[in-house]
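Inverse folding, one chain.
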């Protein structure tokens, strides 16, 4: 098995300290060698919302992670254009990280909607999945949200408290530190002229100010 690699997708509009802390805790818990931050070009579940330009979201991610030796920024979905589907991205990672042990990181709310994703059953053949949740919320760690065909491919492994897929990948749930920050709230504060200090890294705050992002409210919602 190759390197243990994490993939954290999202709009990152903008990236904030909650994203970064989540990635760090997953990296540490799973002993990942690298974690890729993967800004979506157009998330399929947000078809109506206008995002900040892909180049700006990439630039903010690059600035946010510049001092972390294990974090990487990946422009794959931005460069590919169109709607960003995770199954296409995971297939492409076979070329980006040949032979790697991939771990796709999603939040619990996203996981609960995974049956609506493109080729949802195939996703678990391409990568292990790490589902994060934030205490003190009481979360049921269940695979009942998966399509029936996907559920049938898993069996519970009590030794590791995870689910093993017949392809060899795993699905596990990982509680992480609860940091109540959302990109929506950050954008709204910018629109209102309020401070976003300590919500985003200083380099991201500076970039938003210099580029005058979100001030008009066009990327709010």
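Residues assigned per position:
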């Amino acid at each position: 098995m190759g390197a243990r690699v994490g993939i954290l997708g999202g709009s990152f509009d903008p990236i904030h300290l909650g994203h970064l802390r989540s990635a760090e805790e997953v990296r540490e818990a799973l002993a990942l060698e690298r974690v890729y931050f993967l800004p979506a070009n157009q998330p399929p579940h947000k078809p109506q919302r206008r995002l900040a330009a892909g180049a700006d979201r990439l630039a903010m991610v690059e600035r946010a992670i510049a001092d972390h030796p294990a974090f990487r920024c990946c422009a794959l979905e931005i460069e590919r254009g169109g709607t960003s589907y995770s199954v296409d991205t995971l297939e492409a990672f076979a070329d980006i990280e040949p032979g790697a042990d991939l771990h796709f990181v999603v939040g619990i709310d996203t996981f609960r909607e995974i049956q609506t994703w493109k080729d949802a059953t195939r996703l678990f053949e391409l990568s292990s999945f790490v589902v994060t949740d934030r205490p003190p919320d009481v979360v049921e760690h269940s695979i009942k949200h998966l399509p029936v065909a996907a559920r049938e491919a898993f069996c519970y492994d009590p030794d590791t408290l995870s689910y093993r897929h017949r392809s060899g990948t795993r699905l596990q749930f990982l509680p992480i530190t609860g940091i109540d920050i959302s990109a929506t709230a950050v954008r709204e504060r910018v629109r209102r002229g309020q401070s976003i200090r300590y919500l985003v890294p200083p380099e991201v705050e500076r970039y938003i100010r210099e580029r005058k992002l979100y001030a008009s409210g066009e990327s709010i919602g």
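The chain has one domain: 4-179. The domain at 4-179 is CATH 3.40.50.620 (Rossmann fold).
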